[in-house]
Structures are given as C-alpha cells and as structure tokens.
Amino acid sequence: MSWNSSSEFFAMGGYGLYVWGSLAVTAKCLILETFFIHRRRRAALTQLQSESVLEQELLNEKSS
C-alpha cells in the first residue's frame, strides 16, 4: 500500500481506528501480563522463602 501523507497512513484506508485500537489493546495486554507475571513470581518466591524458614525451624527443633 502506498500513502501520500502521514494522515493517510494513520487513517489506514478507513480502518485506522480498528488498526490502532487493536494495537493499543495488544500493547496494554502485553504490559499487564508482564506486570502480573512479575507479581506472581514475587509472591511465589516469598512463599517459598517462608516455607523454607518454617522447614528450617522444624529441623532445628528436632535436632535440639
């Protein structure tokens, strides 16, 4: 496709709202997914650390 101006490019032959809206929704989903993955990872690591501390305390009690 050939565009003569930037406004024609952004209009995308009359489908600009759909194209740019889809791009925005996709970008938002990718950003949110990255955020949620980071949050779940941090929660999992915190849980593993607390379980490790509890396990270590149980081992210390048994050895005493």
Brief rundown of the structure:
The chain is 84% helix and 0% strand. The relative contact order is 0.06. The chain has 2 helices and no strands.
What does this structure look like?
By secondary structure, the chain is mainly α. The chain is 84% helix and 0% strand. The chain is built from 2 helices and no strands. The mean pLDDT is 92.
Percent helix among the residues?
Answer: over 70%
Total count of strands? 0
Largest sheet: none
Q: Structural class given helices, strands, pairing?
A: mainly alpha
Q: Which descriptors would you attach to this protein?
A:
single chain; 64 residues; mainly alpha; 2 helices; 84% helix
Write the layout of secondary structure elements.
Elements: H1 6-11, H2 16-63
